[in-house]
Structure formats: structure tokens, C-alpha cells
Fold:
Amino acid sequence: RSWLVGALLLGATLVSPLMALCGLGGVLLATATARLLNLSPDLIRSGLFGYNALLVSLGASALYKLGPEVLVLMAVAVVGSVFVTAALHSALGFTWNLPVLTLPFLFIFILLLAAGPGLKAAYLSVAVDPLAAHIALPASVELFLRSLGAIFFLPRLDAGLLVLLALLIYSRIGVLLALVGFGLSLLLGVHLMEVPDSMLPMVLGYNFILTAVALGGVWFVPSM
Structure:
């Protein structure tokens, strides 16, 4: 909930201005939808309805070439994320006292992926990383930074550095947990298994990082 951390994460999305614009539009549309539905003002201010819409918008703009059909699909997906977030918050929160997390994004984004081919949406190629051409880093360090950037669909060094800086400001323990999670993903995904897909280590990386930070730095207090 830190404005500074949020500003740095916004900066990470700004390495792709078009994606950042789509993300901003998604958050504004989700907020407007939540207000029109008279949902809790406190929940709206907390960002509950915004972050899943942000991920949906960033993911769609990273995957598809933008056009009228994709923009309409993105808008429908963002509005849908508000409904799913509200429903899951009510069901999980009041019944089992569980957080929504990114379940609305995952549910909506799968539907968005399924709808894309029907609209004949053109896929984008993997974004070029301009910083990688000028900075030589050890392979594991580069993969760690790309994994951090991939959280926002930007597997780039510049985006990863900004996410890392935000994480440092948020919590040094969080950074340590991120490194532990990434180290485990590297061990399991690269050294203990034969990984045929070159993107899989990075996918493993950001999922392990998010899991480690959430479990050790947000929901539980680490202890022996």
C-alpha cells in the first residue's frame, strides 16, 4: 500500500508506454465499474478491484496486437474482472476469511486467451530487451531480473531492476525471500529437470518468487 512502491512498479510498466497506457485505462475502467455497481468505497480505495484489472490489461496488451476488436475484448475482460473479484471476495472473505489474490485475473485471462483466436487477434512477438545488449550480467542474475519483470509481462532487465528496487523499499526480508524462491526454482527447474522450453525457467522463477514473498513476508511470520 506504499505510494512509493506503487510508483516504482508503475515505472516498471512504463518501459513499454503502450502497455502502461492500457494498464492505466484498465484500472480506471475497473474503478468506474466498481463505483457504478455501488461496491464498497473502502475496497475500491484499497485497490482490490484495480490490480486484477491491471494484470488483465497488461497481459492482453503484451500478448495481442492492439486493434478495435482487442480493445473491446480487453474492456469486457476488465469489467468481468470486477464482477469476479466482487463475487470471490464475498464468497472467500466472508465464508473462509481467505484473500482473493489473483484468482479473478487467472479466471478472466484464460477466457481472454480462448477468445483471442475467435477474433483473429494477431499475437505480438517477444519484446526486445534494449538494456541486455549493453550490459553483460551472469546468466542467473539476468534470469532473476527478467523473472521480476515478467510479473508485469515485461521480461526485461530495466523492468526487473525497477521491481527489485520497489521490493527493496518494501522489505529487505522480501528481497531475501525472493532470492530464496528464485534459487529454488533455478535448482528444480534447471538442474533437477530437463527444461525444453527456454521460457519455462523464467515462468518458474516469478511464480517461486511470488510464492516465497507471499508466504514468508506477507501472510506468515518466519520462525524456526
